Amino acid sequence: MEECLIYFRKAVHEPLSVPPWSEWWAENAWLVERAFSLVDFVRLRHRRLLGARQILQRRGELPQGFEPPSFTQTGSCESCGERCERVAPEGDFARCPVCRQGTL
Ligand SMILES: [Zn+2]
Fold first, then answer.
1. How far apart are CA 72 and CA 25, in angstroms?
2. Number of domains in the chain
3. CA of 2 to the centre of ligand 1 (A)
4. How far apart are alpha carbons 101 and 9 in whole angstroms?
5. What are the beta bridge partners of residue 83?
6. d(Cα 23, Cα 82) in Å, to the nearest integer?
7. H/E element holding 66?
8. Is 83 contained in some domain?
9. Residue 87: inside a domain, yes or no?
10. Could you point out which of 25, 60, 80, 92 has its C-alpha 20 to 30 Å from the C-alpha of 51?
11. pLDDT of the chain along its 104 residues, tens only?
């Protein structure tokens, strides 16, 4: 479980220091399934990085009102942990390709 939590913490605080969620999940879903309860496994499968944040909050590692770094600054979606596209080559980061929550 600790291995997963280490990834969650990095993905929440410094998303660019770790692979996007989908890549990590593809390699580690089996580990999550073994280390976490079924409820948490399903939570993580569907809510992705948001689910990871909720687990860290439940463990008291993050304050309840924690605001993750915005995708506009990091280029990584704070909901699902995927990389965001830029509007223009040098422009701001825009919507996330997965959950489309990143509209400016
Ligand atoms: Zn997203």
1. 23
2. 1
3. 24
4. 21
5. 76
6. 9
7. none
8. no
9. no
10. 92
11. 999 999 999 999 999 999 999 999 999 999 999 999 999 999 999 999 999 999 999 999 999 899 999 888 899 999 999 999 888 888 888 878 888 754 44
Q: 93 phi and psi, to 5 degrees?
A: -80, 140
Contact present, 26 and 19 (Cβ < 8 Å):
no
Q: How many Å lie between the centroid of ligand 1 and the Cα of residue 30?
A: 22
Domain-located, residue 77: no
| Amino acid of residue 24 | W
Q: How much distance in Å is there from the Cα of 3 to the middle of ligand 1? A: 23
CA of 28 to the centre of ligand 1 (A): 19
Are the C-beta atoms of 21 and 79 separated by less than 8 Å? no
**Domain assignment of residue 78, yes or no:** no
Domain that holds residue 21: 2-67
The rounded Å distance from CA 97 to ligand 1 centre is 7
Which tokens sit at 76?
């990584």
Cα separation values, 88 from 17, 91, 96, 98, Å? 23, 5, 14, 19
